[in-house]
Amino acid sequence: MYIMTERLDLVIFGATGFTGKYIVREAERLAKDKHFTWGVAGRRKDALEAVLKEFAPESENIKIIIADLKDEESLKKMAEQAKVIVNCCGPYRFYGEPVIKACIAAQTHHVDVSGEPQYMEKMQLEYNKKAQDAGVYIISACGFDSIPADLGLIFTQNKFEGDVNSVETYLNFWSKSNVGGALLHYGTWESAVYGLHHANELRGLRSKLFPEKLPELKPKLKTKGVVHRSAISEGWSVVFPGADRSVCLRSQRFLFQKYKQRPVQVQAYVTFKSLFQVIQTVLVGSIFTLLTKTQFGCNLLLKYPKFFSGGMASHEGPKPELMENSHFSVTLFAKGWTDKLSEPTDQHKDAPNKEMITKVTGTNPGYGATCTSVLLSALTILKESDKMPDNGGVLPPGAALGKTSMIDELAKNGFKFEVISSIEK
């Protein structure tokens, strides 16, 4: 393993992008308390200087590194100057792999905020062994996708004190601002368009990545109807199409294979306050899904994001006041048993006799909580790699960080993890 003297602790690559700018701001805030060294990287020195002046005005001697995705040598030189690369350049399916290759070559850890299952699982398939051999961790989904859900599930399992059979997650958003406008930046929209366009790749990819089936778990968790009401989350809920479920299941598979821990069945939902919001979202989602089936349809979605998203996405992104006053919660409903069987493949003879509700809450999910969680993920690698598995690899956050103090660090920096109720029948 490289002796990482003289390297910066973190380098934020893509610091001039919409998300990158806010990660720079959060890096300045966290560095005052945690005292780490950091730098920024991108194609243009003047643009990077402007970002530092606006988003990190109190920071001095922040190193600027010129790196271009089209120049492999520049990526490697960037990686050689950092202990961890915080990669903000998406869509990752197009721009993520060259950075990962450079990090492995330079023996540098890598974190990103991808919510793209195809990219994440392809990287695990192709680079897990190489990352282990290099002694580096490659961890995606370290932002809002999917830290609250994945570490929320780890938190729930730790608090349950028994065998968890299934967990249903319910995502809620709300705002305390009267300011309207887009909630998503164009980059997030672009990732979603191409993610769904290539969704048919997942089946073949997963057959290679997971050749062995997990043990059959009973009782089987069934998906709720197209639209349903739940006592767990007030309003109307539908299946959440994001990456949370796939990320959680990857962590659960890893924990089963590595630590012989019973894997949890997972289903993810998102809740809306009114039936009108559900109908509106389903309509927009149906058109979105239909258009992503062809390249022509994708081009339309990318050309007119505001129109096809119903105003949810734009090139400008959300306004600062809207971001600062937006909130989220992920409520997790766990069912299982009070007793723990000796083997993860053993079957309980009785019906589940315990239920627990936990919740993860925070503010500004897309461009606040995301920035905090990806930076804390990077710092946790540096400080607690001895609590992480396998000396490296391509892992989801729950698998990589579940045994570290990551949940406690998140709780000190704007997140809240809590047990709402626990009932034994």
TrEMBL record:
CC terms in the record's Gene Ontology section? lipid droplet; mitochondrion; plasma membrane
> What processes in GO biological process is this protein linked to?
glycolipid biosynthetic process
Stored InterPro entries: NAD(P)-bd_dom_sf (IPR036291), Saccharopine_DH-like_oxidrdct (IPR051276), Sacchrp_dh_NADP-bd (IPR005097)
> Residue ranges of the Saccharopine dehydrogenase NADP binding domain?
11-139
SUPFAM superfamilies, per database record: NAD(P)-binding Rossmann-fold domains
Give the family, as the similarity comment puts it: Belongs to the saccharopine dehydrogenase family.
Listed PANTHER family: SACCHAROPINE DEHYDROGENASE-LIKE OXIDOREDUCTASE (PTHR12286)
Full protein name: Saccharopine dehydrogenase NADP binding domain-containing protein
Q: What is the species of this protein?
A: Nasonia vitripennis
